[in-house]
Design a protein that fits this description.
- The chain folds into 3 domains: 2-163, 2-Layer Sandwich (BirA Bifunctional Protein, domain 2); 196-445, no CATH class; 456-568, no CATH class.
- The chain is 52% helix and 8% strand.
- It is built from 21 helices and 8 strands.
- It has helices spanning 12-20, 52-60, 92-106, 148-163, 181-190, 196-208, 214-223, 260-263, 269-278, 298-318, 321-340, 344-360, 373-385, 392-419, 422-455, 459-472, 474-482, 486-498, 503-513, 522-533, 563-568; strands at residues 2-5, 32-36, 76-82, 118-123, 128-134, 227-232, 238-244, 258-259.
- Strand 4 (118-123) and strand 5 form a beta hairpin.
- It is elongated.
Length: 569
């Protein structure tokens, strides 16, 4: 159940005409009264003799007792209450009870507080009602509407439980502004999947991802086809910006502009600048070089992303809250950049993952930017690396990056859950599911190649990798050996051994440092962790068959503290 307090109005009669009218797209059906401050209130929807003017005069009557200075300006309070599409259809009596509880919770008309404001609840669809109230109590005082939005949300959570409706997560005021009903109807008329506000928010977020400063940011907005207006102070300083879609026009044919802050709280120019300024300050306060502009190849950018995501999981799981919040916010930039540069077969799921995670990237825990610099560099590398192919090293390294990002997003979901951020935790979980689907699309071919290489390993070599598995991770060995992905892991262990690494040490490190409980296939996850740690090609299509080296001459994995050891982490 979603209660939404709309912008206050000045004309009671105007809102009544809308509520009892056909709607902007003929969507209103059988408009009628389900509850009001007075059981005898006229209902223009069901009573042929009742008029909108009569109802308006009754609603506004208490205003006539007040002077202009005493009247609330504007005086029309408007609340809509909407159920989820899959909720059962409630009766008029149910909606009437809901309306009475909502106005009491808001402070409009609470029977326990004496004379309240006059109000009506109109139903013109199966799934929602509108409540109109005039802000003048019968005793001449103004109603106390402090925190009315918070109170009606709390009442909605109680009603969901009592009526057996879909139960929503409580909000915390950090979500992006929802599109208005007018924006939604306009999008439907124009054949858009999303409203202009939502399209702009996604485009601006992608423009921010990995951007190094104002010039690059605004160049990206222009390249994306947006109309941009900058707000400049008399001194010449840039104060803000607003954007519009070229084909989104108002009734006068003018573009409809949205300031960044109206798209999302973290898209205002001051909040975006926090990322840029933090990029040049090290943790000890010393000035550092800005994010490097040198473009990397798509596959190189994806391997770097996988490595950075691997390290970020530790920060989110064990770091201070402000550092974790910064890494979670920067994860959103990485997802935006990856979606922007992805191949066709993974693009939609990655875009949906980035869209869902947008809600998880903000909370009331203030992020200390600068510590997330590695993730922002990864986003920058992805953008400058350009679009990736869906095959070869590009495709396989994409699967590697998605696999690591899945665990980072899952860690973010757990962090939000521990902090009681219900909406953010749910959003991160939704993003993880989209990443899981994208991973299946990206990983199918490269894992199939490794699977075939593993099946064709010489039997003594395969038996040795089996023994390595049982020795290194005895608790997981039976599960991994039973999985279809075991042969791909065996081929990877053999590749790592041939490259001079101790496969057992790599296994212990890969299993011990990150959770595996959310993995669909433990062997698949270990494949990517080992191939990244040992710097093995993600795509093994052109690899030579692995020979059986002499284990007595195989060097051990480097000790921690050396450069290769840092890489192997």
């Amino acid at each position: 159940m979603v209660p939404k307090i709309h912008k206050r109005g000045k004309r009671t009669i105007g809102l009544l005409y809308y509520l009892y009218g056909p709607g902007k797209a003929e969507e209103h059906t059988d408009p009628h009264l389900v509850a009001s401050w007075d059981h005898a209130a006229p209902d223009p929807g069901r009573d042929a003799e009742a008029t909108h003017k009569q109802l308006q005069q009754l609603l506004d009557q208490p205003l006539s007792l007040l002077t202009d200075a005493q009247r609330a300006k504007p005086h029309v309070w408007h609340l809509s209450v909407r159920n989820a599409p899959d909720d059962r259809i409630l009766s008029d009596e149910d909606w009437g009870d809901i309306a009475r509880r909502m106005v009491a919770a808001a402070g409009i008309d609470d029977p326990d507080q004496g004379a309240g404001c006059r109000w009506v609840a109109v139903r013109h669809a199966d799934d929602h009602i509108h409540i109109l109230a005039t802000l003048a109590r019968e005793d001449g005082y103004r109603p106390n509407l402090d925190r009315d939005a918070v109170r009606v949300q709390a009442e909605a959570r109680l009603l969901e439980k009592e009526l057996g409706l879909r139960r929503l997560k409580p909000g915390d005021g950090t979500a992006a502004q929802r599109p208005t009903s007018a924006e939604q109807h306009k999008a439907a008329r124009q054949g858009r999947e999303r409203t202009a506000r939502e399209e702009l928010r996604e485009t601006v977020r992608r423009a921010v991802a990995g951007a190094q400063g104002e010039e690059e940011f605004f160049d990206r907005l222009a390249a994306a086809g947006l109309l941009v207006k900058k707000r400049v102070a008399p001194s010449g300083d840039l104060l803000g910006y607003k954007v519009a879609l070229p084909d989104d026009r108002n009734k006068d044919g003018e573009p409809v502009y949205y300031p960044g802050a109206r798209l999302a709280p973290d898209l205002s120019l001051p909040r975006i600048r926090e990322r840029w300024s933090a990029d040049t300050v090290a943790q000890d306060g010393e000035t550092v070089q800005p994010l490097r502009p040198v473009p990397a190849a798509p596959a190189t950018a994806r391997r770097s992303t996988a490595a950075v995501a691997w390290q970020a999981v530790l920060v989110v799981e064990h770091g201070e809250d402000d550092l974790a919040a910064a890494h979670i916010a920067a994860t959103g930039e990485v997802l935006d950049a990856l979606a922007k540069t992805s191949a066709a077969h993974t693009r939609r799921e990655l875009q949906d993952a980035a869209w869902a995670f947008e809600r998880a990237s903000r909370s009331h825990v203030r992020a200390v930017r600068g510590h997330d610099r590695a993730l922002r560099q990864a986003a920058r590398d992805l953008v400058h690396g350009g679009p990736a192919l869906g095959r070869g090293e590009d495709g396989a390294s994409t699967a590697m990056a998605i696999d690591m990002l899945f665990f980072l997003v899952t860690a973010a979901a757990h962090w939000h859950a521990r902090k009681g951020h219900a909406q953010q935790a749910e959003a991160a979980q939704q993003a993880a599911e989209h990443l899981r689907s994208a991973y299946r699309a990206a990983a199918g071919h490269p894992l199939a190649v490794l699977h075939q290489r593993g099946r064709h390993l010489a039997r003594p070599l395969l038996l040795r990798q089996t023994a390595v598995l049982r020795t290194a991770v005895p608790d997981l060995a039976d599960q991994v050996l039973a999985e279809a992905g075991w042969y791909a892991l065996a081929a990877t262990l053999a590749d790592a051994e041939a490259a001079g690494y101790d496969p057992a040490a790599l296994l212990v490190d890969a299993v011990g440092r990150r959770e595996l409980g959310t993995a669909e296939s433990v062997s698949d996850v270990l494949v990517w962790r080992l191939r990244r740690a040992a710097d093995l090609p993600a795509d093994a299509t052109g690899a030579r068959p692995v020979s059986s080296p002499d284990t007595r001459s195989a060097p051990a994995a480097p000790r921690r503290g050396s450069a290769p050891a840092q890489q192997a982490r």
